[in-house]
Amino acid sequence: MPRRRCQVRGVVQGVGFRPAVYRLALARGLTGFVWNHAEGVTLEAQGTEADLADFERALQEIPAPARVQSLVGEAIDEVPGEADFRIRESGQGEAPRPVVPPDLALCEACAAEVDTPGERRYRYPFTNCTRCGPRYTIIEGLPYDRPRTAMKAFPLCPDCEREYRDPLDRRFHAQPVACPACGPRLALQGADGILRAEGEAALAAAAEALRQGAVLALKGLGGYQLLVDATAAAAVGLLRSRKRREAKPFAVMFPDRASLLRDCEVSPEEAAWLASPEAPILLLRRRPGGAVVAEVAPGNPRLGAFLPNTPLHRLLLAAAGRPLVCTSGNLSDEPMAFEDDEARRRLGGLADLFLSHDRPITRPVDDSVLRVDADGPTLLRRARGFAPLAVTLGLEGLSSPCVLALGAHQKNTVALLKGGELVMSQHLGDLTSLEGSDLLARTVDDLLAFFGARPELLACDLHPDYASTRLAERLAAEWQVPLVRVQHHHAHGAACAAEHALTGPALALTWDGTGLGSDGTLWGGEALRLQGAAFTRLGHLKPFPLPGGAAAVKQPRRSACGLLWAVQGAGAPPPPLAAAFDGAEWEQLQTLLAGAFNSPLTSSLGRLFDAVAALTGLHARGGFEGQAAMALEFAAGERVEAPYAWDFRDGTADPAPLVAGVLADLAAGRDAGFIAARFHAALADLALAWAQQAGLPDVVLSGGCFQNALLTARVQQKLGGAGFRVHRHRAFPTNDGGISLGQAAVAVLTTVDR
Length: 754
Ligand SMILES: [Zn+2]
Ligand SMILES: [Zn+2]
Known about the structure:
By secondary structure, the chain is α/β, with parallel strands linked by helices.
């Protein structure tokens, strides 16, 4: 009898791949075995030529969440007397390849069990199978087997054991398998740590407290979340004040599809994402008259919406009977709490009650955030469901060396590039707090141990004070490996280029908040020519001063003050900007500017957005970074107006005519939407001017400004219409979450250039 051996790579562990192989072999009467190991899955099968060919075809089509990236088969010698097809135990101790399953949202079959009275797992909050459930959040090492997960503390009961051993069962080798008899249990505690209820009673009491307006800390899949009634303004306000989060939008989880559709518009593509195993938060257009109060996302035409992705969420949302705000359990810029003691300590002042359980979380993984634009999806936060899937970068010659890139400072991620495959950590968030920099160090240790990687090259930002830079310096000294410092916006451009397998030359339009430039000023409105590991600054926004430096990031009126100073010198604030300044503040800032004291120069486009938003009176005070830009985007809506002009010389874009235009429109009483539309049109013109100057067919768009869907669409239309190939981020964030990818790509390219 013919016999073949196949090596299968891809997402083939922790997703029911071996049982699927087993069933396919059984159906064709084949003998042999399948074996899980650090490199992926190997199988040998023996049978007729026709059955073997049919078997290999079927292997390629094993459905999601499994994903076969490569299948290499070869004929080998017959094994006489083989009687059956077996699943062998996993090998141990080999260096694992970076293929680790991400966490998967509750599947339909498990949801049906949870909903059906009489089922063994009726209303059991930790139901899962080979197609769904926790993965990355419980794995401690590879290969992925129960003794190397957080489920090792839960011995299987005889019923679960039987399912786990039965190759024809949906739970065959489902590592997190559990039931009410043997698995994790719910407990409800007060902020005082005193146990209030367990099991069903805990769930019911938590739901009732939410309906009464309480803030609930819920131990979710990848960490603690804070929940309140999304239909009650008072509850949302309470959460905002306790979390010290004034205006930043909250995500809302809906009990089911029907309730979500009452609040949001959903396209077929968006519906598919909502029901996907990744089940991200989707930024959906709000419908008027929905149940969710405006305070959840003030002034925002979109709502971050998602559906229950675990049985626990499903049961809790159903019991509460209404949409709930569901946000990371943290205080403003700190990372999400995920360990029980830590959560109790950090969230004790934020939450009234803790709904928790005894399954440990191995590492924190936040919810992912995705938006579907006219030309496809944009991932704005890469975390649950995506991390830590390895992505093969299509760049040639990237077979070596192993690079670790530590990212920037906000919305941070870490990236490991090895053999052309990139593993990006889950979103880690800001590194400002002690907890943030601890999480960074921990994630690096975790990724290296997990993937058995020994970096030969390190990459970080130019900024000397980022926690990520300091860690990179320490590790470089400790490991005696070179450290490549990559300019912030170079990394942005390189990230988008790497995502689209471009090694240059290409034009990168990196429009962003601020990052340290090679000349010591703050960059952020850049036109960079990328070529291999190098870049040339072809153009930039003409720098203007930021009175008070970093304080300007959260006070858009300061950017407006600095911009006016640069354009027209000293003077009084024009209305409506004047209203944004208290007492002598304007004069104090003018003094700073006149003395060039604590007023760093910036070419940041993010700060230009802030300045224009403040000038128009849309948004001048406080809030979160990007809020002013969002106000302009939303004010412009779909309006198309004539662009403002630029004074464009040798790549330097002087916004003086633009500022004059804004002031003239304000004086003429034009509304903010009109000005915002003209401003977006002007930025599309600027993109075209730089593209024509560069004369390169490929243009990549990156940086935080391109989170703005309107700006991105206008720039794409303008450049596409002029014949340029425009590339934007898809699978990686355009904000600083994508920086680690760009740093890794630049570091590797430095070795290719040599
Ligand atoms: Zn399932
Ligand atoms: Zn059990």
